[in-house]
Structures are given as structure tokens and as C-alpha cells.
Write a structure and sequence with these properties.
- The protein contains 15 helices and 10 strands.
- By secondary structure, it is an alpha/beta fold.
- Strands 1, 2, 3, 4, 5, 6, 7, 8, 9 and 10 form a 10-stranded mixed β-sheet that branches.
- Strand 1, helix 2 and strand 2 form a beta-alpha-beta unit.
- Helix 7 packs across helix 8 and helix 9 runs parallel beside helix 10.
- The protein is globular, with a radius of gyration of 23 Å.
- 36% of the residues are buried.
């Protein structure tokens, strides 16, 4: 019996190994082959709204360096890809501020060489030397967004949005209509904590978390849509006249309607910085630095500002009037009102809160 059993076990083990190899090959082999056959290339992991592949064609023509861009939807996805074997496929990534300390701690990034980046001295000082990367040894600020309130002024005036601020979202006695809310657990929890306690840096106490949860459950009754990048649609369609989102999402609606306004509440708001960072495993620093110097070139930055509504991270770029008219600038007064979405609560706990909230 045992002699008959052994061949069957061996066949099953071989079959399992074969299928595991097949899965591995489907996921990783194309990238590995590409990197071997196309040595003068770089691979980038970025947000779909942050880097347009068609905007990279001039760089490829100028340098002969092929750029492969993959996209991710969340910072957690970015982290998992770098942490897994797939991380060796990327040379450059674009993490948001709050995930950077984790990437550094896990040894997934390499230090940047500023001597290779002459534009670095022209980056807005307000974007540098923050808690997530003191001294900016690992990150180069690329995209940044100020979170604020988009309002249909036919329903809620700019003055009311400025004065009442986050009370519009959490106090139905101030406003009891439909709302548009960001679709991110960390951001939603931090906004609620900021409304309740004036800060979001010390909200690990269980009683505070329970209070935040109750507030969000009450708010959920008025949420028309949780969304990451459709704030303009919510406002223009009339789905909700009050929305919280980064400035670039709301300004798309401002461009298309005289009734839409962007407001930074007088109580303050949040700043998000997405940065460029070299992966620890990249061996193509020369090509990556050429690409970064292209990306931060004045004419490229100008085109991004005009086309996508992103404010450039470098000075001396002529800003479209819509930014100035809506007070979306990196002035000392505005910067002093802004905070970061910090990784205070563990991601697994945030996930549980989010699942319970959306159940």
C-alpha cells in the first residue's frame, strides 16, 4: 500500500509545485524578462492621477530611456507590492506622507543623492522637513493637496462654509442635507477627531475612538457618496451641495460652474504630500535621476499645473489664476492652518472601523 501511495503523493506535490511556478511566472516573469531585455528603462509605481504615461513620451525621445508605469489605488497596496517579491520590479514609487515612515523602517527605500537633483533647492520650503521624513533623506515632494470644503453656494454660502467649517459635516443642527465624504478610513477618522478634539495626534484612547465611531455612524445617514476622486461630479450633479476633498478635485467643479466654491475652514484643515522615492532594490539610479530632473523641469511642471490642476512643488512656476482666486497657495498663513493625516491608529483597526461603518 505504501509503495502505491508514494507515487501518488509525489505526483500531487509535483502538480502543486507546477501550479505555484505558473502563478509566479504569470505575475513576475514578464517584468523580469522586460528588465533583462530592456536595460535602459525604469519602472515606476504611481497613482493613476499623478503620472500620465503620454506625458512621458518626450522624455523617452530625449533620453532613449523607456519608462514603464504601473498604478496602485492605495498606500497599503503600494506597501504590499514593495514588501513582496514584486517590489524588486520598481525603481521609483510615489508614496503619500503617512506611509513613508513604514517604508523607511522596513528598509524599502534608499536615500536620495541631492547632488544629482539641481532642482531640489527650488522646492517650496513648506513642503520639506516634515515628520514623515525629517531632512528629506528619502523623499522628494511631488504632488500636494490641501483638503477643504466644496460648496454649492446656492445652498451653503462661502461665508458659512468658512465660519462653520467641519460642523457642516458633523453637526446636523448646522446643516442637515446630503454630504460627499472622502473614501479613506484614515482621513475620515482624522477629520472626525479634529472636529471633536481639535487634533488627531492622540486619539488612541478607547473612549475617544468609540466617540469618533458614534459620530461617524450618525454622519453616515447623510452621506450621499464616499468617493476618492469624484468630488466635482457630486457638486456639479447636485448629488450633494457640501463635499470634503483635496483642492484639485473641487477646483475641477469650480472651473465648470460659477456656483461652486472651494473653502479652507477657519478652524484649519489637512495637507497631503505625495513624494517620489527610490526603491532600495533599484540599480538604475542614473536613469531615475535623469527622469526626476525631467519631471521637475519648469515646462513639465507648468503643463501639469495647467492640465491637471496640480500645484507644482517648485517655486517660480506661473500659477493659473484659479489657484490664487481660491486661496490655494503655500503662504505661511495657510501652512500654519494645515495638519497631516498621521498613522496614529493601526491600519488593521482602521479597516475594522471602516467595515463596520460601511456595513
Amino acid at each position: 500500500m505504501q509503495h502505491n501511495l508514494l507515487p501518488r503523493v509525489a505526483v500531487r506535490i509535483a502538480a502543486i509545485i507546477f501550479w505555484l511556478f505558473l502563478v509566479w511566472a504569470v505575475i513576475f516573469l514578464p517584468t523580469m524578462i522586460r528588465k533583462v531585455l530592456d536595460k535602459k528603462s525604469i519602472s515606476i509605481l504611481a497613482w493613476s492621477t499623478a503620472l500620465r504615461s503620454d506625458y512621458l513620451i518626450p522624455f523617452e525621445r530625449e533620453t532613449g530611456i523607456k519608462v514603464y508605469v504601473s498604478y496602485c489605488e492605495t498606500n497599503e497596496e503600494l506597501f504590499l507590492k514593495l514588501k513582496s517579491g514584486e517590489g524588486t520590479s520598481y525603481d521609483l514609487v510615489m508614496p503619500s506622507d503617512h506611509i513613508v515612515p513604514t517604508l523607511v523602517k522596513e528598509g524599502l527605500l534608499q536615500k536620495i543623492d541631492r547632488n544629482q537633483l539641481p532642482f531640489f533647492n527650488h522646492i517650496y520650503p513648506a513642503l520639506l522637513n516634515h515628520y514623515f521624513d525629517p531632512g528629506n533623506h528619502y523623499t522628494i515632494p511631488f504632488l500636494w493637496g490641501i483638503y477643504g470644503i466644496g460648496v454649492d453656494t446656492r445652498v451653503v454660502s462661502q461665508q458659512t462654509a468658512y465660519a462653520e467649517g467641519w460642523r457642516l459635516f458633523f453637526d446636523p443642527q448646522i446643516y442637515n442635507g446630503p454630504l460627499g465624504m472622502v473614501d479613506d478610513a484614515r482621513e475620515v477618522v482624522d477629520l472626525a477627531a479634529y472636529y471633536l478634539y481639535g487634533e488627531s495626534d492622540h486619539i488612541t484612547q478607547l473612549d475617544k475612538i468609540q466617540t469618533i465611531m458614534q459620530l461617524l455612524l450618525q454622519q453616515r445617514k447623510r452621506i450621499a457618496l464616499y468617493t476618492e476622486d469624484r468630488a466635482d461630479y457630486i457638486l456639479l450633479s447636485g448629488t450633494a451641495p457640501v463635499v470634503v476633498a483635496p483642492h484639485y478635485d473641487i477646483l475641477r467643479a469650480v472651473r465648470n460652474s460659477p456656483h461652486i466654491a472651494f473653502v479652507i475652514p477657519k478652524q484649519g484643515s489637512f495637507l497631503l504630500i505625495d513624494s517620489c522615492a527610490l526603491t532600495r532594490t533599484s540599480k538604475k539610479q542614473e536613469y531615475v535621476y535623469q527622469f526626476l530632473n525631467y519631471l521637475f523641469r519648469d515646462d513639465v511642471m507648468q503643463s501639469y499645473a495647467e492640465k491637471f490642476g496640480f500645484l507644482p512643488p517648485v517655486e517660480n512656476i506661473e500659477l493659473p489664476a484659479i489657484f490664487k482666486n481660491n486661496n490655494v497657495l503655500l503662504t505661511p498663513d495657510i501652512i500654519s492652518q494645515l495638519h497631516f493625516f498621521r498613522p496614529i491608529i493601526a491600519q488593521n483597526f482602521l479597516t475594522l472601523i471602516w467595515l463596520y461603518l460601511k456595513a
